[in-house]
Amino acid sequence: MFIHMETNNKAEAIKSWLTNHRDLENQSSIARRFGKSTTFVNLSLNKRMTTKGAESLVDEVYEYLVEKYGI
Questions:
Q1: Given this model, what pLDDT does residue 50 score?
Q2: How many CB atoms lie within 10 A of CB 42?
Q3: What is the per-residue pLDDT across 13-54, written as a single tens digit (0 to 9) for each?
Q4: In terms of residue numbers, what domain contains 56?
Q5: Eight-class DSSP state of 68
Q6: Total of domains in the chain
Q7: What is the DSSP string of 2-65?
Q8: Phi and psi dihedrals of 26, rounded to 5?
Q9: Superkingdom of the source (predicted)?
Q10: Spatial separation of the C-alpha atoms in residues 29 and 50, rounded to whole Å
Q11: How many CB atoms lie within 10 A of CB 52?
């Protein structure tokens, strides 16, 4: 779990949205877009890796999805 509860909520929202919109985005496309490995994206979204970089990635992905798809 991340230290900031809002980051935990964002990670859950991202996972939920990705599950329901696989035709638009998936963890691999997110990884390519942000220049990260699919494993890093997966560990970050599942809160298995809670480093500052993982937290930053979750925030960036959330902002991207809000901007592009209005989640």
A1: 86
A2: 16
A3: 999 999 999 999 999 999 999 999 999 999 999 999 989 999
A4: 5-69
A5: H
A6: 1
A7: -SSHHHHHHHHHHHHHHHH-TTT--HHHHHHHHT--HHHHHHHHTTS--SHHHHHHHHHHHHHH
A8: -145, 180
A9: Bacteria
A10: 21
A11: 9
Count, residues in the chain: 71
Q: Does the pLDDT of residue 9 top 90, yes or no?
A: yes
Helix (H, G, I), strand (E, B) or coil at 71: coil
Burial of 33 (0-12, 13-18, 19+ CB in 10 A): middle
Q: Which two tokens stand for residue 2?
A: 């991340």
Contact (CB, 8 A) for 6 and 62: no
Whose tokens are 């901007």? That residue is 67
Task: Give the pair of three-digit tokens for residue 14.
Answer: 């991202």
